[in-house]
Write the structure tokens for this entry.
Amino acid sequence: MSASSLISPLTGIARPFLPMTRPSIDEETIEGVCEVLRSGWITSGPKVKEFEQQLSELFGGRPVRAFNSGTATLEVALRLAGVGPGDEVITTPLSWVATSNVILNVGARPVFVDIEPFTRNINLERAEAAITPATKAIMPVDLAGFPVDRGHLARIAAKHGLRVIEDAAQSLGSNWEGKLIGSTGDLVSFSFHPNKNVTSIEGGCLVMNNEAEAALAEQYRLQGVVRSGVDGMDVAVAGGKFNLTDVAARVGIGQLRRLEEFTLARRDLAWGYSELLDTPEIKRLGLLLPLPDFKQSNWHMFQVVLPGRRLPGGRAAVMEAMKELGIGTGVHYPPIHLFTLYRQMGWKPGDFKYAEEIGRNILTLPLFPAMTMDDVRRVVDALTVVLRTQVQS
Ligand SMILES: *Cc1c(COP(=O)(O)O)cnc(C)c1O
């Protein structure tokens, strides 16, 4: 069967495959990229500066620097915070593995604590209880764009003298109690991967506290190089090669201008999902819905939790059946501590009950700004039929 279009066995109507996500790149942006390509300057230059300036304005004037990925951005944030060998960083096991890989990459040790089952984000009480003399930082993740409690986070950090590196890869456009994520806090890292709410194809940005941090971030971004005068050059830190290109930055500029529109579209579609899935039958089938937050979350993803114990074929069979109905779904994420690398470091099944249970059964449904309410209805109808067929009572 073709994955690009199919005739629905439910309606007999031929419809294109509905992917889990898809970026919306407009013609103005494509034309802008062509201009950059014709300009003679295609790597980091004026467009990166312009993109950083716009991001800084968005975050209330805080210093911002762009990087070639959200992973690089997080790694630089850890270096700026002085995290290195011997240090511990407290984080969540339910995230994209980049979150903890970067901690290993700077020579420190990730310390996982379990999540709260309703928000699916790090449990901050458990995080505070996990603090030791070696703890240097906390790295929370706003899973699916649902923000971690920034007030609680700041209180813990202040009380214990910790740095906070917000992995806000998924929460551009989200806010906590009306304050845009990135406009407050310590170090805040975003990703512009194509699946994220705003993309620069690949890329990321870091929001910092002052110009000194920004200057150091520039060094880590490009081989540690510091230029001075007409021909002066020095290297004081072992920097990497993490710079964003002007081509990518121009995509980001075209996207950023639509941030509000994208966030509203996602919230509206998520609201539609929540309404249509709020039925006695769906409850009986045991499907768990995300918290209905249509004010703070940017709805980076709409994630349901399947009734795993009542599904003989597990999540895989549900995903297969959805695919046959022309609908893409995704898994975000298997718990990090059960990957081979992390098991070798001592973690094992049973360590984090909620992260494991949710990691096994979480399912991401299609959600992107160009989707329509009709698409939402189609997903809900298909999921209802699939669960009706597969869930054992
Ligand atoms: C996407 C993502 C990253 C990494 O961003 P890249 O741009 O893909 O390197 C890190 N953490 C989280 C939570 C993410 O979703």
User: Anything to note?
Assistant: The CA atoms of residues 305 and 358 lie 7 Å apart.
